């Protein structure tokens, strides 16, 4: 009993002392070393209801937030935008291998880049048929189609090799610009020849082909092998919103035409043309804002869908969405089944950090530029022969211009990537497949279509957004 009373006396005396003395007294006891023979410990004093003024030294132990400290918690994306300079635009995101391929190695890489290169034999065949037998429109059209398919593949291969040597943003802009180069070249040549029906039907055919045929085949092929496949909900919602916006913009001229159908073509035509050109400018602004969203402000949402397709047929340019390469800051997004938080707040173990690997280019810089320029030139010339032969095959009445644009021409520029998208979906990479299909459709709807309307305005061609009603209903 005497020992218990002795142990309680210090605690009772502490409660009766001044708060300042309590603080110094507790500090004194904390500084004293505790011997192992002392088995008792002082109870923690209860907090006293005293004002802050009674604790003159309490502010010394509190860290007051300052202006400089509060500003340190900045959005990393915002910090990235501020630090981005012209030097960073030309600096590759990943370190390139020091071994630069020779011209012989580059040529070998081009030949072995895809099995579709066997169709390159149709380039000279189509040219010979064009000059020797100009009346054989069906043969010229068929051989030109087969020749453009491997050229589109090589065009994407050269674009990816050049994008590998520049910064992430500049490479993304390069991929976004040349993503639908074949469709753009074919449409421009048809616009120059005033084949307006072919231009409109080919662009809408590309959108429908990507959204219905390619995306449906990706879902089917992936679903045959896997019972469930995951994709980014945020990116899918944004893509859906952009597609709906583009459809509404295209439906405005059709709605105007239906509402004022009693007007003559001479009165309605100029109004529809002015309306289409204004909508085209707005769509281009929306596309520019979409690029800013995708490349700068919210680039982390698209990093997962930009995984390089080196595992499949060498390099593959993912249209629209193959803009950003994987970064360490969002490495966890590449393992969604491992690190995503569950609904109850529990989290799965985080994956181990992977070491950065050097990117090994398949071509040297000069070879990549030559390949890109040569492929573009060959696509342009071959597409011109292709457009010239359309009138010959539609003149017989067997097929129409709308059918050629909706069905045949979309196959020309998209066949290589269609096969790649389905193959990647079988490997449980549904995000990449959706990036190919939906991203290409968005790019055509928001960039290629309004750009052609503006080009028609410059060339004095009456290209409008008033499409065939049946095609619009299907879209």
TrEMBL record:
Composition bias type Polar residues, residue spans: 59-75, 330-345
GO molecular function, one term: calcium:proton antiporter activity
Disordered: region residues: 1-75, 330-358
Localization annotation: Endomembrane system
A family per Pfam: Na_Ca_ex
Protein topology in the membrane: Multi-pass membrane protein
Transmembrane regions: 114-132, 138-158, 170-191, 203-226, 238-258, 278-296, 362-382, 402-422, 434-459
Gene Ontology CC: one annotated term: endomembrane system
Classification via InterPro entries: CaH_exchang, NaCa_Exmemb, NCX_ion-bd_dom_sf
Main location (coarse class): membrane
Gene Ontology biological-process annotations: calcium ion transmembrane transport; intracellular calcium ion homeostasis
Compositionally biased spans, kind Low complexity: 31-58
UniProt keyword annotations, A-Z: Ion transport, Membrane, Transmembrane, Transmembrane helix, Transport
Gene3D superfamilies membership: NCX, central ion-binding region
Domain Sodium/calcium exchanger membrane region: start-end pairs: 139-296, 368-468
Similarity section: Belongs to the Ca(2+):cation antiporter (CaCA) (TC 2.A.19) family.
PANTHER family documented for this protein: CA(2+)_H(+) EXCHANGER, PUTATIVE (EUROFUNG)-RELATED, VACUOLAR CALCIUM ION TRANSPORTER
Name this protein carries in UniProt: Sodium/calcium exchanger membrane region domain-containing protein
UniProt organism field: Puccinia graminis f. sp. tritici (strain CRL 75-36-700-3 / race SCCL)
């Amino acid at each position: 009993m005497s020992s218990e009373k002795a142990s309680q006396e210090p605690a009772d005396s502490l409660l009766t002392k001044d708060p300042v003395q309590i603080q110094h007294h507790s500090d004194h006891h904390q500084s004293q070393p505790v011997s192992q023979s002392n088995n008792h410990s002082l109870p923690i004093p209860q907090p006293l209801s005293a004002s802050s003024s009674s604790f003159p030294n309490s502010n010394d132990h509190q860290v007051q937030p300052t202006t400089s400290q509060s500003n340190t918690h900045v959005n990393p994306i915002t910090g990235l935008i501020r630090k981005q300079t012209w030097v960073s635009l030309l600096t590759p995101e990943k370190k390139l291998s020091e071994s630069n391929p020779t011209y012989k190695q580059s040529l070998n890489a081009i030949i072995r880049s895809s099995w579709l290169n066997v169709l390159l034999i149709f380039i000279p065949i189509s040219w010979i048929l064009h000059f020797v037998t100009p009346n054989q429109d069906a043969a010229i059209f068929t051989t030109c189609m087969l020749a453009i398919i491997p050229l589109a593949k090589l065009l994407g291969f050269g674009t990816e090799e050049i994008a590998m040597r520049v910064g992430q943003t500049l490479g993304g802009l390069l991929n976004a610009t040349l993503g639908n180069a074949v469709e753009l070249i074919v449409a421009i040549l048809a616009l120059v020849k005033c084949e307006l029906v072919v231009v409109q039907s080919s662009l809408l055919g590309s959108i429908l082909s990507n959204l219905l045929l390619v995306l449906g085949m990706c879902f089917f092929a992936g679903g045959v092998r896997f019972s469930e496949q995951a994709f980014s909900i945020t990116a899918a919602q944004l893509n859906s919103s952009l597609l709906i916006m583009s459809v509404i913009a295209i439906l405005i001229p059709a709605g105007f035409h239906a509402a004022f159908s009693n007007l003559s073509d001479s009165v309605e035509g100029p109004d529809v043309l002015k309306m289409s050109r204004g909508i085209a400018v707005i769509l281009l602004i929306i596309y520019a804002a979409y690029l800013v969203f995708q490349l700068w402000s919210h680039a982390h949402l698209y990093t997962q869908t930009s995984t390089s397709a080196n595992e499949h047929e060498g390099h593959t340019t993912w249209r629209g969405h193959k803009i950003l390469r994987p970064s360490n800051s969002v490495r966890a997004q590449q393992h969604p089944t491992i690190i995503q938080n569950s609904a109850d707040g529990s989290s799965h173990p985080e994956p181990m950090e992977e070491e950065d690997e050097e990117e090994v280019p398949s071509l040297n810089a000069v070879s990549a530029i030559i390949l890109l320029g040569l492929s573009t030139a060959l696509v342009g010339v071959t597409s011109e022969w292709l457009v010239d032969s359309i009138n010959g095959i539609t003149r017989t009445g067997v097929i129409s211009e709308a059918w050629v644009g909706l069905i045949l021409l979309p196959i020309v520029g998209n066949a290589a990537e269609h096969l790649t998208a389905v193959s990647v979906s079988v490997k449980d990479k549904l995000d990449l497949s959706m990036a190919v299909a939906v991203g290409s459709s968005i790019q055509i709807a928001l960039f290629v279509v309004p750009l052609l309307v503006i080009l028609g305005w410059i060339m004095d061609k009456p290209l409008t957004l008033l499409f065939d009603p049946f095609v619009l209903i299907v879209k």
